[in-house]
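Batch job 17 of 40 flagged for manual review because the log was empty.
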Amino acid sequence: MAQITTLFWDIGGVILTNGWDRESRKEAASAFRLDWEEFQDRHDLSFPAFDTGQITLNEYLDRTLFYRLRSFTREEFTAFMFAQSKEYPQTRAILDKVAGSGKYFIGAINNEPLELNQYRIEAFHLRRNFSSSSVHVTFGLESPKKRSFAWRWRSHSARRNSVFSSTTGR
């Protein structure tokens, strides 16, 4: 058996909670007194473009919420959105230990929109653990699509000696 030299870690659902999933949106709808069905419909229409980097977070918010006057600000909503991200301490401890060993090339693969990914990397100091990171929006790929992960997997030269940790089974 070949020696493992490379580890890829998915951020959402492995190291951190999922970034902006259905449950987070339901909590936002409740906290900001939004009509859930309308918000979800507008999300469904806008998220593919946001997810693939075709629109920014502000444009996503314009399409889903701020197309009309609201009783809250864009900053308040964005803060709530970002605050949905939480760290899994046990997984992070494992990652810290593995990264600290210096034995592996460790890469992050993230399938979240760019601004959310950037926030999470900074807020949770993820750069300290990773030799490289890959965000699906960089390639214009929607998440979590099999081709998004497959492209990154194939693009890495050490793939034969690699392990990928993810909650995405597709």
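Reviewer: the log was empty due to a logging misconfiguration, but the result itself is present. The longest helix spans residues 36-51. Unflagging and moving on to job 18.
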